[in-house]
């Protein structure tokens, strides 16, 4: 007599009470493969960068308004604060005041245009990703040096604005050799504004290159 070999059932079939049933096992489960998500460029959460750029633009706008107010008050005859005629600032001081204000305005405009350009680029790239509207595939070096350049423009604008205010004090209160008031005003301006600029430069360098 010949022996009958037991039938072999495939691995994806099971026998329950004499009834074969096929198990729902996908080929992907039988042969698992690991896939790594592909990334293009450098992905950054850019909402904080947009907020920082908005802050730079707002500060630049405030200082630009102060510059135009200074333009309207640079006439020596209209602004003497009761000091003698011998203490009036020379015409060269008024000319320097106007030059410093123009240079300061140029730096503020430079800083604002860079900030607006980076912000426009971020917003356009954010619009390409519907799943995460606050993430843009933007080059980190472009973002880093762009923010730092915009901050440097603001710092230079503040420095020339401070120099223009020094000349403005001499036009309104008299030259430094004619009283203590101009000296006190200039010392206060240089100490507080200079300290703030130093802190701002240090923070900008740390945020741009070490964070």
From TrEMBL:
Record has Transmembrane helix as a keyword? yes
Start and end residues of each stretch annotated as Disordered: 21-44
Instruction: Provide ranges: composition bias, Low complexity.
Output: 29-44
Q: Which residues cross the membrane?
A: 55-76, 97-118, 147-171, 183-209
Keyword list (alphabetical) reads: Membrane, Transmembrane, Transmembrane helix
According to the lineage, what is the superkingdom? Eukaryota
**Protein name per UniProt:** Uncharacterized protein
């Amino acid at each position: 007599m010949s022996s009958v070999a037991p039938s072999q059932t495939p691995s994806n079939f099971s026998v329950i009470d004499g009834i074969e049933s096929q198990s729902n096992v996908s080929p992907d489960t039988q042969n698992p493969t690991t896939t790594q998500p592909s990334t293009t460029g450098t992905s950054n959460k850019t909402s904080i960068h947009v907020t920082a750029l908005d802050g730079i633009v707002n500060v630049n706008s405030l200082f630009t308004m102060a510059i135009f107010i200074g333009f309207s008050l640079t006439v020596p005859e209209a602004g003497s604060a009761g000091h003698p005629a011998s203490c009036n600032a020379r015409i060269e001081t008024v000319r320097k005041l106007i030059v410093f204000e123009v240079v300061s305005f140029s730096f503020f405009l430079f800083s604002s245009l860079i900030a607006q350009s980076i912000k426009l680029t971020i917003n356009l790239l954010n619009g390409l990703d519907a799943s995460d509207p606050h993430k843009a595939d933007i080059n980190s070096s472009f973002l880093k040096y762009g923010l730092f350049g915009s901050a440097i423009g603001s710092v230079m604008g503040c420095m020339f604005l401070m120099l223009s205010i020094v000349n403005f004090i001499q036009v309104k209160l008299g030259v430094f050799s004619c009283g203590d008031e101009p000296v006190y005003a200039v010392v206060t301006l240089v100490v507080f504004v200079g300290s703030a600029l130093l802190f701002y430069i240090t923070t900008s360098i740390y945020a741009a290159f070490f964070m």
